[in-house]
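Section handout 9: paired folding examples.
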Amino acid sequence: MSEKSTGVRSMHDLGLAAWFGGSLMGAVGLNGASAQAQDPTERAKLAAYGWARWTPVNAAAIGLHALGGLGLIGANKSRVATQPGARANTVVKAALTVAAAGLTAYAGYLGRQVDQHAHEGAVGATEPQGDASETLKKAQQQLKVTQWAIPAVTGALVVMGAVQGEQQRPQSLVRNQLDRLPGR
């Protein structure tokens, strides 16, 4: 078996990059731009259209990241099993990935709720008007938090990936092997 895992590493990293970047661009750019619509009833609707167009790409990015992550675990299974830092990092990354996927799915659900009430008007995609229904206000408030939590969690995954890269440096691998010697 090859020692290189360029393909799965690329899948992992490119999928995560698209997930992180797309969620951040949507929260900043798409939501911000939709708030500029003159008609308050168009604001949430425009954001919903944009997010709906992004959803299939985002789903593919998440799938690519997950497949790449599983491939990396398989390619590094002995290191993950024996190197304490690698094992802990892998467990934390898996938990964060599940959390980010859950947040993404929940944001989609909330976005559909906002879209169903878009006719009520809005200040922005995640900012309700004063006379909005409680259903719309609640969905927009939760969506705002959720849409910012996704780039925060996926950004943490990027950092955890950098940590894993550092754990694979030769001096880290040698130190791990030396620490496993009897009497140390």
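Moving on to protein 2 of 2.
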Amino acid sequence: MFKVIGGIVAGVVLTAGLVWQLAGSMMFSEIPSPFSVEETTARIQQNIQAAGNGWSISGLRNPAKPVEAEGGNVLPVLLIEACSTKYSGPILKMDKVRFLSLLMPCKISVYKKNDGKVYIGILNAGLIAKLFGSEVGAIMEQVVVDQKSFLIMDPSKPAPALIVPKMDGGGGGSGAAAAGGC
């Protein structure tokens, strides 16, 4: 009897440890880019604008800037904020999942690592879809499709200009209020 209980406890502990170790790689994806941080960001912005489905760029942030202002030295990082009222609206109307506003607007990070390469970091919207039931799931599955189109990098197309949303002057730094947010 003790062997069975011990085996079950060991299995639960092993499973919990495995989930703990893999959770980060399941929640987020990192994709290499063949372009610079600025060009990758501009291409993603252009793709967001072309996606339709109510998508707009609500902000562009440089989270490295405050670190540099305090004398720190970090590699380039740009954070693109995008939102679609087609997708955010229904979620914001549901009391039981309104807390998902924490994920709005959608963010895509473009950054350089010490290996000299540029990467794109994204949240796994498909996993979010599975965690919060069928209503949110159906919406987030559509976000997944659109998100994939944001990341298409066609080197045969000329590099677009970087879009820097106008700041609202409120000190938030994201430009979301000036661009309408979500």
